[in-house]
Design brief:
There is one protein chain. β3, α4 and β4 form a beta-alpha-beta unit. The chain is built from seven helices and six strands. It is globular. It starts with 17 loop residues before the first strand and ends in an 8-residue tail after the last helix. By secondary structure, it is an alpha/beta fold. Helix content is about 40%, strand content about 15%. The chain has a six-stranded parallel beta sheet, sandwiched between helices.
Length: about 240
Amino acid sequence: MPRFFASKKPAQRILPQHIGIIMDGNGRWAKKRGLPRKAGHSKGAETFRTITQYCQDIGIKYLTVYAFSTENWKRPQDEVNAIMDLLRDYLHNAFSHKDDNIRSIFIGDRQPLDEDIRDLMAQAEEGSRDATGLTVNVALNYGGRQEIVQAAQKLARQVKEGNISPEDIDEERFASALYTAGQPDPDLIIRPSGEYRISNFLLWQCAYAEFVIMDTLWPDFTSKHLDEAIEIYNGRNRRFGGI
């Protein structure tokens, strides 16, 4: 884990507006305990709920979590089924948390998902549309390259239909075709589990994000770990290409 910079006083601490988290290490957490991999995913889902609420409590505006990648379909079928069942549970429970003022958005390709899951996702989004607190983007069947390709296809269709010209396509217009259109890019991306990979996560949006790698496996991740990551973020000098 990286060394921490000197802590800033609470009044001086700058909160990232948008945090991204690659929720990694569920399977290894279970293996270390002699448990099936789905037990790790179940524990990881509990951690997700805890961290989401903590982000809401401290005033984070956007949280994007990597829940299931386009590559995760390669995993054993029983593990994929367990993840989808956990998603169903989360979506059912989401309707009982309307008072939390948290908005849910799902980013990724929904088409391969079961119809009941797609319906629950749409209901969760519609039911939380007016929330003004934390916005949670759940990256599900998501891949950064896939997102960029679909954005390019969307803009190409607009050119073909005569709505825009190729010269109209700049960074701002391209960003407007992404799943995260209208949201600020992540300031901080956290990867638990000690892996030094981006794993196809928010490839366009992470251009100037600060990365923090932590050795803790996701199921063991706590609000204290999030505070530590924010402390590291506060010690960084963000120049955005300047001096």
